[in-house]
Amino acid sequence: MAPDTAEAGGRASPAAGKDVRVWDPVVRLFHWTVVTGCVLNLFVLEDGELAHKIVGYVVAGALAIRLVWGFIGTKYARFAQFVPSPGRLTTYVTALLRGREPRMLGHNPAGAVMMVALMVLLAGVCLTGWMSTLDAFWGEKWLEEVHESLANAILLLALLHAGAALFESWRHRENLVWAMVTGRKRP
Q1: Where would I find the Cytochrome b561 bacterial/Ni-hydrogenase domain in this sequence (predicted)?
Q2: Are 1 and 81 in contact (CB under 8 A)?
Q3: Is residue 1 part of a domain?
Q4: How far apart are CA 24 and CA 183, in angstroms?
């Protein structure tokens, strides 16, 4: 399925009416749950404490729901709509480097790859966090190191993701952060 794009050359076509719903409540709740959970567990809560574990389980639950929603959810939530082929990704990145990337209502191919990478890292950090509570892995230093490395990778990619969202907001003259709050973008 081809992505919905704006006018060629990266410029949005004039708004023909009201904003359109792009990000449904499940996608938005997942996004902000993960943001909040990562901030809490990376910067506020003590590693290994009950609150840290509870937040981890909430994020794991949100990820499980989002993975299911990626197959049965609304148009822009479905993986089939936004996960790009290698060719589509290459075409998009080439256009981006030339300053001619198209504006897209859903995830652009680079953003889609970032979403998949972040979900894989989230799954890994949730799995290693859960494993550390099992008797078989209790106190295993290597597992703690893997868990921390995955969490740090999430932080690095999240910063890159936020920077890219700000860049795209500037480039296409729309507030993508606000769109993830409201779920709406201009057509």
Answers
A1: 22-183
A2: yes
A3: no
A4: 6
Contact between 175 and 23 under an 8 Å Cβ cutoff? The reply is no
- How is residue 77 written in tokens? 């939530």
pLDDT tens digits, 112-124 = 999 999 999 999 9
For residue 173, pLDDT beyond 70 = yes
Return the H-helix or E-strand segment holding 184.
strand 184-185
Which residues contact residue 85 at a Cβ distance below 8 angstroms, ignoring those fewer than 6 apart? Answer: none
Contact 100, 107 (CB under 8 A): no
For the chain, what's the residue count?
A: 187
Query: How much is the pLDDT for 6?
Result: 45
Q: Does a structural domain hold residue 3?
A: no
Q: Is 98 left (phi over 0), alpha (psi -120 to 50) or beta?
A: alpha
Distance CA(129)–CA(91), nearest Å, equals 38
* Number of domains observed in the structure of the chain: 1
- Which of 156, 125, 117 minimizes the C-alpha distance to 53? 125
Owning domain of residue 83: 20-182
